[in-house]
Amino acid sequence: MHFFSDNATPLCPPVMAAIAAADREDHGYDGDQWSARLDAAFGDLFETPVSALWVATGTAANSIALACLCPPYGGIVCHEEAHIVVDECGAPGFFTHGASLMPLPGEGAKLTPDVVAERLAAIRPDVHQVPARAISITNATEYGRVYTPDEVAALGEIARTHGLGFHMDGARFANAVAFLGCAPADVTWRAGVDALSFGCVKNGGMVGEALLFFGPERERRAAEAMRWRKRSGHLFSKGRYLAAQILAMVEDGLWLANASAANAAAQALAEATTGRLLHPVEANELFLRLSAPEAAALRAQEFDFYDWGAGAARIVTNWSQDADSVAPLADALRRLDHG
Amino acid sequence: MHFFSDNATPLCPPVMAAIAAADREDHGYDGDQWSARLDAAFGDLFETPVSALWVATGTAANSIALACLCPPYGGIVCHEEAHIVVDECGAPGFFTHGASLMPLPGEGAKLTPDVVAERLAAIRPDVHQVPARAISITNATEYGRVYTPDEVAALGEIARTHGLGFHMDGARFANAVAFLGCAPADVTWRAGVDALSFGCVKNGGMVGEALLFFGPERERRAAEAMRWRKRSGHLFSKGRYLAAQILAMVEDGLWLANASAANAAAQALAEATTGRLLHPVEANELFLRLSAPEAAALRAQEFDFYDWGAGAARIVTNWSQDADSVAPLADALRRLDHG
Amino acid sequence: MHFFSDNATPLCPPVMAAIAAADREDHGYDGDQWSARLDAAFGDLFETPVSALWVATGTAANSIALACLCPPYGGIVCHEEAHIVVDECGAPGFFTHGASLMPLPGEGAKLTPDVVAERLAAIRPDVHQVPARAISITNATEYGRVYTPDEVAALGEIARTHGLGFHMDGARFANAVAFLGCAPADVTWRAGVDALSFGCVKNGGMVGEALLFFGPERERRAAEAMRWRKRSGHLFSKGRYLAAQILAMVEDGLWLANASAANAAAQALAEATTGRLLHPVEANELFLRLSAPEAAALRAQEFDFYDWGAGAARIVTNWSQDADSVAPLADALRRLDHG
Amino acid sequence: MHFFSDNATPLCPPVMAAIAAADREDHGYDGDQWSARLDAAFGDLFETPVSALWVATGTAANSIALACLCPPYGGIVCHEEAHIVVDECGAPGFFTHGASLMPLPGEGAKLTPDVVAERLAAIRPDVHQVPARAISITNATEYGRVYTPDEVAALGEIARTHGLGFHMDGARFANAVAFLGCAPADVTWRAGVDALSFGCVKNGGMVGEALLFFGPERERRAAEAMRWRKRSGHLFSKGRYLAAQILAMVEDGLWLANASAANAAAQALAEATTGRLLHPVEANELFLRLSAPEAAALRAQEFDFYDWGAGAARIVTNWSQDADSVAPLADALRRLDHG
């Protein structure tokens, strides 16, 4: 059984069905009937007007969002272990034309208001220093931690008072909402988020993430984002196949059902190995202490996963699993401790 | 019957079958078994070692190729009606960090050696002027014209003697080869081409084009291209679905069969309307004189297509058609003249 | 006697005196007393509030202006022989992060409203094409031609109606105003110009040109320009020496006196060789038909100048000359025709 | 007496004399006789072939050097308090087209081999992470500390083994060499440095710093740097005035004499206030604990300087001072402790 990554899984059947249903003649690029439904579909989901675009990947969604929120001479406050910092080969610098990332520490890859406020206070208001122009957070974080609506709102308030754009990398947004049980609106625009990278691929999709803009500037920013999308080679000539996947995710609640299944699987594993956890398990990722012999023992039982440095491992669950289906690994983990 | 664009068509069945076959667990990004087969598949097709990458779109393929061939302070010699000039919202300038396009005239959107040589000779060898560093041509061109191996080789020789990289935009490369009946190698690397954007989507694919590098520098350039692919958000987390589509195209000759069908459809229409043609029909596009009433008459018979300025129209055929299936439009065109 | 370029001349004495006068302790960068006077000095000269910055060169002034007027995905309408197109090694593309130059033809390197309007009308309003966002003209032009206030205003009206920024490269602005005898305001902001590169170095300065912003957005744009100036390494640590030179030029009318002298010298030469002129002589440059033997004959008399292609030459006069001082060349030119 | 910055001082007389001596007709840009002497002058000083360019500022020198050493997708290892990180408004990101700075801690703004090696070891060799491609250090550092030849060589060895370019920001290089008493070569190319920003303005110049390339790739890199210089608007049309200043500095040892005077002044002050020093004084900067009342007391005696956060101050000496001339401040500092 594989726990490498939620990138490694097949498509969930409704997504494949949506692709097949979109497989007929229609206008190219984003001129098709599916793309035309995106704004309304996300507007319903978020209970507010939304400007939505499909793009190829989460890296593209994050980078285009940041290019719309931060000028080339600006800075983007973010966590030092954020995906935009460590796993995108400098894509934000490419799309923003050289804006500076301003990485900060924080437990579980979460930013805290105090650390952000202190960083902002340290910037001299002259032309020699890079002015902060945006904040970017990841929810759920790279360590599977979840920001609550109040935690997001506290950062949103700092963004508002400092005139910064506020972006959320939601590659695993569904897992965060599934954990919180809140309205998607509560942890995004109601908390001050201007732009959201809404992940679909890790949650059962094939290709295509959604970039969402909220608030009064959403249309101006989306119009600019459409320029960046074309300019960066992300305006697919048969965009309907992306739009159809995204609609399949959001129009019937599939996004949340899939994430809930993955989270449940993660919780089942967490309960089996509480003593080893390096971070509380809130979404669909577990980080746990695991010695080399223990890792080898699990792999001998055909459980695959990535090491996470020496003596630790990362286990990622996905939409195709649930508490029952991961029981074999849960049992194997228990045996490590109570063999 | 629609003749808007070869972007508007459904997928050809083998491509959809390949997507379904790839729908199982495998490593993410380009670590899967399908992506691993690309170099060999294109190596067989082109009879030479090839370094191949999948990217999202033709715009991305063209731009990444140019970023690997031309420095930011360099210039790219191209046709003034090339896709990179008029239909990519400045994407080459984005990926190359500001390289200058050097547009030149030429019948049927084809560059000729004389015009290119004259342009190159006019550049002063000082730091004040932008030095040409690459040539980019489109085959088949934006007007459906095809460069022969000799015509490409003549430009390739100029590129070689001036130390310029040589790129071919092959969004409709299959249509060009189908018309020429030559080996793919003859009209590319044997003629001096360093990088080829190998189109799949217009030819029956869903998403994903191939970027190919030939020659002694191919591995260095491909390694750099992989950085640009990631950096521009084109490294899909489930790349196997793109690789599988591309392999379905090239491993069994589907790419050429599809293009031959589209070309045959275009020839059938061309024969029906020779007197109106603005350009010789060599690939799968027709540009013809058509008055507003004539266009209206055809549309009244449910033939759809784009106007091409006043008094002209563009008709594009595709993989799903052939001479027989477009007979109704052929007849309708004949009736316009011999009503 | 040298007629290579107005770049080759020494400083005019008041500029050297101003440098010496600024040679004392003061705050660094642009925090000094001379830099603080720039806005007011240009405000007086242009009869309107002005936001002024010193930068190193005309290329920097032009590029920073364009970066403030045009987004990376926009286009800049300009003449195909403009300095920004042919003599800045792509600097506008560097500062604008890849904006596209949209070169147009026109006699004497002058843009005409019809040609500009036609180019703008040809741009499709979709994301595939680069939208024009700015117009840039050079006054006096690269061929020493001068735009009148009415000619500038006609282009300014097009800029206004299309929402384009309007930039003027004034490397030889003083020569243009000296020829026109109008108020500087008439040929700039009153005619719709948003940003002016005000040249000093060709007119007797050592280092430092002024970048001026007019109109309601001047402060926002200047604030952004200050970011670009720092970011591009143009915020000198001893900026007072640049500011002092510029003030010496504009506070006492030196800029106009110098240009008038250069223009008078050019007129004296023009009268001596009317039959050979390739362009009317309006500023301080002459372009004339001159055979190789004739050029050799002049050089044998120690008159230096650059060839301008085969059978032609460019002669540039400067602030240190006047009608009398160039009489020897005038006589030599007459002798060519009436030997 | 002012101790704000070595940017605030007048020119040293030989530099002003050199400007006057260059004030005659010569070819423009870098085609003059002074610019032609730069390579040889620095070749003599560094005992090795050197390719030298003048640029406007230290920010430009640093950024152009980094653009020649690091690709847009690369990373630059540097100190978290380096000028390129905190005082250039992101200029390195602008010139490198988005390369990532990789800031590291270190006492006195000095990088240590261990910290650098650890950072490099943490980078995964895949396309998701930014690969380090350059190291940049400042000598003397932003805290007036000096790297010894051995310390530079240890970092140079890391650069060599990892295939990284090695840049030294020498805004106060003269002060470092004056402190070390070594050959300039020992602390640069002999220690593995590829590119040096050789500062002149803080050391008595008006405008113009030198960018030097050493080693087998120097000519290729300098040729590229000349493109960046033009492209960034730093190719002055009367470059001879910059070249003449730089030659005045280096051809007769003025650079070292000026720095020695500034260092001696700093030492005299250091001896007067050893108990307050936050960093050892090695070059021409002192950072000392100073309460608000103490700072006020010194300012009341007309000693000016910048606060350095709460309870501290920065005092900078310059070429126009020496131990005797700063005695009044030395006495005043002593009185603070032994009033």
Automatic annotation (TrEMBL), chains A, B, C, D:
Q: What SUPFAM superfamilies is this protein classified in?
A: PLP-dependent transferases
Q: What EC number(s) has UniProt assigned to this enzyme? A: 4.1.2.5
Domain named Aromatic amino acid beta-eliminating lyase/threonine aldolase is located at 3-290
InterPro entries on file: ArAA_b-elim_lyase/Thr_aldolase, PyrdxlP-dep_Trfase, PyrdxlP-dep_Trfase_major, PyrdxlP-dep_Trfase_small
Q: Which Pfam families does this chain map to? A: Beta_elim_lyase (PF01212)
Entry keywords, A to Z: Lyase, Pyridoxal phosphate
Provide any one GO MF term from the record.
threonine aldolase activity
The protein's required cofactors: pyridoxal 5'-phosphate
Name the source's superkingdom. Bacteria
Q: Which family does the entry's similarity section mention?
A: Belongs to the threonine aldolase family.
SUBUNIT field: Homotetramer.
Tell me what this protein is called. Answer: Threonine aldolase
